[in-house]
Structure formats: C-alpha cells, structure tokens
C-alpha cells in the first residue's frame, strides 16, 4: 500500500525553501510514500530542479494563507490557497493525509469545514508527542479549545488512546488527566467531572497527573484543556531553552571551559540530539474525518520531515478507523454523557 | 530594626532535622534577624544542643499538622499545632513573618482565618520567583485558586507589582498575563476581561505573555489562575529534571564520557548551582494581613534557609504596607470592578 501525503508547501516561516527539500528527503527515506506538493508552481520549481519522480507530484494552487489571515475570512475567500487545496485532496481521496506548517487557526477552520468531524466528536484537538524519562507521552489538547466541558476532555482521552493504540501498537495505553494534585478532590469542577467520566469510559484511566508527571511518563496519554496544554507546552520549551542557554554560557565562560567543551563535545552532541525538539515536530489534529498534521511554523527541513513521517504513520496504521471504532463501541456511554 | 521570623519547625518532609539547622544558619548569616522556633521542644532540642542565643527563641507547641490533614479539620481541632502557633505569633505582633514547609491547604486556611485578608483583596495567592534569561520573574497564582474571576487576576497583578516594588526596589515593574498567544483576541473570556482590567489599572501592564515568555523574562510579574500556574510550574520542574537526567546519563555512558565529565566538572557544577531550584524556594502567600512564606515540603537546609531569607526580605521592605497603599490608591477602580 502506498501512502500519499499532500503538503501545503507555501505554509510556515520558510515556505518551499523548507517544505520541498523535506518532502524529497521523506520520499527518499520511505519507499511506501508519495507526496503531492501543493503551491505556486513557479515558487516550488527552483527546489525541484529537473528531477522527475513518479512519487513526487506537483499541484498548482494560486493563493497563500498568510500567518495573520483570519481563519473565517480565509475559509470564505481563499479557496485556491495551498492549504485549502492540500486538505481538499484528503477529502476527495487523492491523499491519505495532509501536512501544513501554516496558520493554525486557518488550518483548524478549513480542516473542520472541508473534512467534517468524526461521529461522536464535538471539537478537534491538537495532540503532540513529548519526551519522558521512560519514553514518550501524547498530550492533548494543546491549544485548539480554550474552554472545555468534561465531555470534551473524555473525547480527548478516547481519541488520544486510539491514536496511541494505532501508532504505538499498544492495546491499552494508560490515560491520565492533568491536574494540580494526585488526589481526586483536587482541581476545578470540569476536571473532577471529566475524571469521573474517564473512570467509567472503559479506558485504562490512571487518574490525575501533575505537571511534572508529564515528563516522568505518568501516562501514555494525558488530557487537558487547550489553554492549560498550550501554556504548559510553551513553558516547557521555555525552560529547555533557558537551561540550554545557561549550559552554553557556562561552557563559553573562559579558555578552560571552552577546552572542557571541546573534550565534552561528543557527549554534548549526543545530549543535544536527544533533547532536540525537532524530533517531536508534528502535532495531529484529531477528531476530523481525515488526517491533518500541523508542523511548527519555524520548522527546518529535519523538523518538517518528521511531521511528514508522523502523517504517514497515522495513515499507515489506520488511526481514523481506530478512533471511529472506539467511539462506535462507546456510543451508549456517549449518549449518557 | 530587628526582623523576627516565626518558624513552623515541625512542617515539611524532614521537620526539625531541616528547619532548625536552617534557622541557625539564617541567624548566623543575617545580623538583623531573630527566629522563634515553634514545635515540640523535645523534638527541637537535639538540633539546638547547648547553644544559648538571644536571637533564637523556642516556643512549645504540642501538636503537628500532618501532610494529609484536612484544612477544615486542622483549623477547628489543632489549635496548638506548630503551624497555628507560628501564625498566631504574626497576628499578635511577636513575629514579623512566618515560614512553614507544611501542608499547603492547612497553611492557607489557618493564615486566612487567623490573619484575615488585606482590604480590597478577596483571596490569597501563592507567588514564587522563577529564573529567566534576563534575571527573574514573579508568577502568581501558583495553586491557591483553581477558579478565578477577572477581578481576582487584577488583584494578583496589583499584589505582585507591590511585592516586586518592595523587594526589588523597582518602581514600575512590568506585569503580564499568561495566555495562549500574544494577540488581544487570544484566550478565554476570563483572561480577555482580566487583560482589559489590567490595562486600566495604572500598572505597567504589557499584555499577554505566552508560556515560554515566563523564562524569556517577558515581564517582572506574570499573573494566571492557580490551576494554570500550578501545572505550568510543576511541568517546568519536570522538564528541568528530565534534561538533568539525560545530561547525567550521557556523561555516564562509558569511560570516555566519564573522563569528559571529570574535565567538565567545574563547568557542570557552576551550571548546576545556577539552575539549582533550591535557590528559588519560598513562595509568598499574598493578600493576608501578615507575611507568610511557604517552603517546599521536601526542602533541605539550604532551600529552607532561602525561604527564611525571603520572609525576612518581605518584612524588611514593608511588603504589606506596599500592597495596602496600592489598593487604597486604586479603591475607586476596585469598586467599579
């Protein structure tokens, strides 16, 4: 089976300069994938050269969604944008998944309008992988929903567990809910009620997880509302940058420390590779009738290529069918909720 | 002027084993302080030895608040607990500030009941200092209030700015609000309304700050509700621990890397000292008619001693008067809010 990924090549801070080389890398690395590069052909061409590859298809789109375009206006007016066309390709079955580094709000709005939600799911959620002491964890929502009901958080749990089941081949991934204490009485009313729903959901629910539990690997899937998730994710990036900066400053302090850095270079390089956030690029927009992966806007070739791999993995492992199946199985519960 | 700090010596994971040596260190380091050690005298005595120091006073208290005691029951029944007596000493003027590493919920409840709130302030907030690329920032609330109104967030801004004015001697500290984007349209309704109130407050308000902005030093004071603040703080600790563990693992991988670690040791030690979270121990309970500082439960001597220093600094710099003054000046605005 060949997986076809449509790519919004004009999105992100660097556009085709990053997206096209990443797509070519991706095709080179994986024999079972094809890409449809969507964008202004004259802007894509310089990065393609004379290369002819049946697995690299170019599709012209005359417009571009800007980073500050309003989602609503983009939806109404930019019908031939590279983002819109890339998503249309998923809807009409020409592509199995779509990747964009563009405007998140527009990507959410267009995906929701074009692809529609899966049955039983109210709102899409943004899900990303984070490193932990024991491996990795999937956290959602990371910013699509600033206000959530307990039912939304339950749906996030079900979607996240389906994603992990499919992609990590783990049958009963553990699911936790982000809270300010481990005891059941902690937290606000929404989180307490969501925990009750999750205990009754048939998921392998492990209860409350505190902020540091994310990185201790307290659960395979951690649910939270989009406000908390977004702030937590960005604060985590902030801490990592702060520590990296301090470490660099200490190694650059004087001649002796610079010499020490030289000797420690192989160790520091391994450490840098291990904590390289580019490895974790690519957030899934879950709940849609189609696979959409959002890359960080500032992604470079390595990072964007990781987002493409994530999209292909989801398609390869039938994530949508998994989510559908789980919601179908739980539909009586859904009606109660 | 002598600053008297009352210490709940029985609180925290280690009790007198940590609190008493930290208190003695503190008195040794600062000529203008006195301590009142509150707790079971027979438990404190072994750490005091034969030492006689007019600046170290011992006050017996027959009970101890356990880490899992309910705040409400503690308040009603444990009237001779070391925590309660230490706070009573602040109320009746024998101490200028109080420090405890005990049960946070009980400390909040007792402080609020015994000391009462300052005029114009509805709820206490927990405020802590975090390191940034450019220095440090004060973040509140870190967990006292899981649901906040816009007016509460405004009060946090006013209290935080008063604290920074007093302790850091900065006349117009900048104040930001934690949000999921920098644009004014981002976030939930509470945060948007709080931002409007903060723009009109007379504070040096700089608008929305994203999660990573905390560590970039985007503002001197950053306000958020206690749920977001608590999760963010703990997630930050989790990331720091994760990175420290990865770094240690890489340096312990083989003989060569261990040798590199040995050579890099002075650099790594400096780095460790710089990111040592013990330096930042001691969260202020703001909004009360008295200075109360909460130490981390697991604090060691160095960390607990930092919390004592924080309490003394607040007393020395008249934090309460500052908060009072600012709320008095803004009282017409308060009434509108």
Brief overview, please?
2 copies of one chain form a homodimer. By secondary structure, chain A is of the alpha/beta class.
Write up what this structure looks like:
The structure is a homodimer of 337-residue chains. Chain A has 337 residues and is of the alpha/beta class. Chain A folds into 2 domains: 148 residues, Isopropylmalate Dehydrogenase (3-Layer(aba) Sandwich), CATH 3.40.718.10; 160 residues, Isopropylmalate Dehydrogenase (3-Layer(aba) Sandwich), CATH 3.40.718. Chain A is built from 13 helices and 11 strands. Chain A has an 11-stranded mixed β-sheet, sandwiched between helices. The longest helix of chain A is centred in the last third of the chain and has 26 residues. At the A-B interface, helix 8, helix 9 and helix 10 of A face helix 8, helix 9 and helix 10 of B.
- Order of strands in the sheet with the most strands of chain A? 3-2-1-4-11-10-5-6-9-7-8
The CATH architecture classification of the largest domain in chain A is 3-Layer(aba) Sandwich
- Beta-sheet strand percentage of chain A? 15-25%
Structural category of chain A is: alpha/beta
Please give the share of residues in helix of chain A. 40-55%
Indicate the CATH class of the largest domain in chain A.
Answer: Alpha Beta
Q: Between the first and last Cα atoms of chain A, what is the distance in angstroms? A: 38 Å
**Within the CATH hierarchy, at the fold level, what is the topology of the largest domain in chain A?**
Isopropylmalate Dehydrogenase
- What's the mean pLDDT score of chain A? 92
